[in-house]
From TrEMBL:
<feature type="region of interest" description="Disordered">
    <location>
        <begin position="1"/>
        <end position="42"/>
    </location>
</feature>
<comment type="similarity">
    <text>Belongs to the Orn/Lys/Arg decarboxylase class-II family.</text>
</comment>
<protein>
    <submittedName>
        <fullName>Diaminopimelate decarboxylase</fullName>
    </submittedName>
</protein>
<dbReference type="InterPro" id="IPR022643">
    <property type="entry name" value="De-COase2_C"/>
</dbReference>
<feature type="domain" description="Orn/DAP/Arg decarboxylase 2 C-terminal">
    <location>
        <begin position="327"/>
        <end position="421"/>
    </location>
</feature>
<dbReference type="Pfam" id="PF00278">
    <property type="entry name" value="Orn_DAP_Arg_deC"/>
</dbReference>
<dbReference type="Pfam" id="PF02784">
    <property type="entry name" value="Orn_Arg_deC_N"/>
</dbReference>
<dbReference type="InterPro" id="IPR000183">
    <property type="entry name" value="Orn/DAP/Arg_de-COase"/>
</dbReference>
<keyword id="KW-0663">Pyridoxal phosphate</keyword>
<feature type="domain" description="Orn/DAP/Arg decarboxylase 2 N-terminal">
    <location>
        <begin position="77"/>
        <end position="325"/>
    </location>
</feature>
<dbReference type="InterPro" id="IPR009006">
    <property type="entry name" value="Ala_racemase/Decarboxylase_C"/>
</dbReference>
<dbReference type="InterPro" id="IPR029066">
    <property type="entry name" value="PLP-binding_barrel"/>
</dbReference>
<dbReference type="InterPro" id="IPR022657">
    <property type="entry name" value="De-COase2_CS"/>
</dbReference>
<dbReference type="InterPro" id="IPR022644">
    <property type="entry name" value="De-COase2_N"/>
</dbReference>
């Protein structure tokens, strides 16, 4: 199931430059990606229609998440191919999916079948990866707040751990003792190359909370010494940013990390660091259907910026999240009511802050593409009108989109929020006690139909009541001072 041990590198270095600026030229790589993007959009339309026809979406279930199984498999394959194309034959490459992007067991299982491991950052995420059958050697633990118990469990399982800071490294010292750890162990560094357009997601600013801040006084030397003192430290890790960071800056962060690894190995007089974990962070195009930038473009940019990273001397770990899943997910909601306010049409739907938290609270940073369908799930023809698409939560700002031009919506119509496969419907926010929606995976059956599989059931009202402390209903009224 997992192929990175064999090393699938073909060492075909393409000399072409970045394709990140658009898909306008006729090169086969672009054409292939464009066709795949068009096919994904067609599968999505078919799935919307089928979800309505088969009753997954309806008056009693006005909000569902959909995942494109074909799209997930293709994204995983493109990721593997992109790095295989630039690495020396035999180079071990582990692509560990950042579980936080889509923490759903069947998704992790599907990715595992496609040769993708798991990057986890909490006991919950580790448990999800294990429930999905992701083996220990394909799992990486990265959280900035690991407890001693978590570290002990990871070491017992043989899971790779990247220590975030000197205090965590001291805990590892105590746990490792004089033994030789089974787990590959490393240190996370912050190359401090600067942030991107979204402050909250910029992990490599001067004051980011993650990793050892390399440019701080004495920090670099501390890292070097930490390695020289501990023969069991064999990895260096950096995750330089997420959505909003320019690719050259991502590459620069990785180049800095590579240079540090070279320095450490030089001073150690041996190849002590054998693996570099380059994190995730490839941005997603939320403005259109095209998959840009592609993994292929990013891998080639890295190969040009840091050629030594790919010559076979280092094993590689990647931790992509959003770029693997975002475009494979669609949030579907029924329009419950329509009205006008201040002259502007408003469509009230069931998708709001509970499933699109970032978009609702930070609409400038996280705009979502929306698509309108009629009550039968067919793409709704115009004429378009400028309207607000609102969610169900009880505050005025609960809008999926403000002043958006879409076919004028009517009650019973369906609205799709596109590119929501990562950090959206899998990231429920329990405002107004709104239930977590069901999630289904879809696959064209080859005869014009669509087959669905349940990925996650909808949360029931009973479950909401239970989780809200129903078993402790009298806890506060019966609390008395002794
Ligand atoms: C969030 C995170 C990732 C994944 O980031 P994406 O932008 O979703 O690719 C990878 N590594 C670490 C350490 C992270 O915190």
């Amino acid at each position: 199931m997992f192929g990175w041990k064999q090393g699938t590198g073909t060492h075909r270095r393409r000399r072409r430059r970045d394709e990140g600026e658009g898909m306008s030229d006729g090169h086969p790589v672009y054409r292939q990606q464009r066709n795949a993007d068009e096919e994904r959009a067609a599968r999505r339309d078919a799935a919307v229609r089928a979800a309505v026809e088969q009753g997954l979406l309806g008056p009693g279930s006005p909000l569902v998440g959909l995942l494109d199984v074909t799209g997930i498999r293709q994204a995983a394959a493109r990721l593997r191919q992109a790095f295989a194309d630039v690495t020396a034959p035999g180079t071990p490459v582990l692509h560990a999916f950042a579980v936080k992007a889509t923490p759903l067991v069947p998704v992790l299982r599907l990715l595992a079948e496609e040769g993708i491991g798991a990057e986890v950052a909490s006991p919950g995420e580790l448990a999800l990866a294990r429930a999905a059958g992701v083996p220990a050697e394909a799992t990486v633990l990265d959280s900035p707040a690991k407890t001693t118990a978590e570290l002990r469990e990871a070491l017992a399982l043989g899971i790779a751990v990247n220590a975030d800071n000197p205090q965590e490294l001291a805990r590892l010292d105590a746990l490792v003792g004089s033994s030789v750890p089974r787990s590959p162990l490393g240190i996370r560094v912050n190359p401090q190359v600067g942030g991107g357009s979204i402050e909250a997601l910029s992990t490599a600013t001067a004051t980011s909370k993650f990793g050892v801040a390399l440019r701080d006084e004495g920090a670099r030397e501390w890292v070097v010494k930490a390695f020289l003192d501990r023969p069991w430290l064999t990895r260096l890790h950096a995750h330089t940013g997420s959505q909003g960071i320019p690719l050259p800056r991502l590459a620069q962060g990785i180049a800095e990390t590579y240079r540090l690894a070279e320095e450490i190995n030089e001073r150690a007089g041996r190849r002590q660091i054998d693996t570099l974990d380059i994190g995730g962070g490839l941005p997603v195009n939320f403005a259109g259907e095209e998959t840009v930038p592609t993994y292929a473009a990013y891998a080639r940019l890295l190969a040009e910026t840091v050629p030594g990273l790919f010559d076979g001397r280092y094993g590689l770990v990647t931790e992509f999240g959003r770029s693997l899943l975002a475009k494979q997910g669609t949030l579907l909601t029924r329009v419950e009511y329509t009205k006008t306010a201040g002259g502007r049409p408003v469509a009230v739907t069931h998708a709001g802050v509970q499933v699109a938290t970032r978009t609702v609270y930070a609409p400038q940073s996280w705009p979502l593409r929306l698509a309108a369908y009629d009550a039968e799930g067919r793409p709704k023809p115009g004429p378009e009108a400028v309207q607000d698409i609102a969610g169900p939560a009880c505050f005025a700002g609960d809008l999926l989109a403000e002043a958006r031009s879409l076919a004028l919506l009517e009650p019973g119509d369906v609205v799709a929020a596109l590119d929501t496969g990562a950090y959206y419907f899998a990231h429920h926010y329990a405002y107004n006690s709104l239930p977590r929606p069901a999630v289904y995976g879809y696959l064209p059956d080859g005869r014009g139909g669509i087959a669905f599989a349940t990925v996650r059931e909808a949360q029931t009202v009973e479950e909401i009541v239970t989780e809200a402390g129903a078993a402790h209903a009298t806890a506060l009224t019966s609390l008395k001072l002794p």
